[in-house]
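User: Structure please.
Assistant: Input sequence and predicted structure:
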Amino acid sequence: MKCTFEILDWDSKFFNIKICRINGTIANSIELSDILKELKENEIDLVYYSSPIPLQDFQQQSLPYKIDLVDKKITYVKKITDNPGIKDSVTEFVGEYPDNKLIQLAIESGIYSRFNVDQKIGRASYEAMYKTWIINSVNKKIAKEVLVYLDNQEIVGFVTLGEKKLRADIGIIAVDSTVRGKGIGKSLMFSAENWFLKNDYQLMQVVTQGNNLAACRLYESCGYVVEQSEYFYHMWKE
């Protein structure tokens, strides 16, 4: 099937450049060259492309875009079960706007994300994106609930709960660096699982970066298995 592309309105507006995503799998270097020439004609500044097949085997000389591998995206899945491994310290966030602690944790959660890895995005834009993400999670625009872990009434961890393709979906999870290794991440994940179970979901998923080894270990220790891995590229117009 021939690859197509779609303009990403939200991303383009947020980053103030013209961004699109390539849909489909690029078969060879000729197809890669053809679609990038078409994108340049459409004045696309940045292209997202993900595939289970890496691009490094393709000839990339004289292309109108610089291609960078910015992530190896891993999707974990788990069948939802009733899990007793939760604590009273986990509760639903109360409020319509995140406090400074929650915003800072959200920003720290994305250090391995492609938006931070890609230096052309810029640190300020990356931080603004994750701030927007947690704001729109708390106000329920993109999440169904936000659970927080409290230590002496201070937020030291959180997880956002949503839905994608009829699956329960973990958006962001973060734990303060000063209290890691104490089981807080597991408690948040199990609390999320119980919340989804009570809301009639049967399958959970969470997407993370392959370089985020701590996150991968956490999900695997909670019973998640890898469903798929994808190479994620950013292509910037030269």
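The chain has a mean pLDDT of 93.
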